[in-house]
Amino acid sequence: QVQLVESGGGSVQAGGSLRLSCVGSTFSFRVNAISWYRQAPGKPREFVAVISSGGITTYADSVKGRFTISRDNTKNTVYLQMNSLKPEDTAAYYCKSATGYWGQGTQVTVSS
Q1: Alpha-carbon gap, residue 97 to 94, rounded angstroms
Q2: In CA terms, which of 9, 10, 71, 92 is 20 to 30 Å from 40?
Q3: Secondary structure of 19-30 in the HEC alphabet?
């Protein structure tokens, strides 16, 4: 069973930056694609970005050009660098493994 732990959330002003981390507990983390999702209050969870085991990335249109997903397999960690943050980026952010495991989430709040 893979355990995923997110960190790095916080409160920032619009235009600011945050870097989220997702740490996996097992070796299999390295061979799985890892995704980031987010969920704002009263809204469904939505896809943000994904990175394959080989480093291929895909982004939601709403974050393209502002967010960057990357991974460091030596640390079993996937990062989400978020720049030029907007109030509409406010949400709980979750990482998810390709095998269906979710982390507990980390809150990001962007004020205008």
Answers
A1: 10
A2: 71
A3: EEEEEECCHHHH
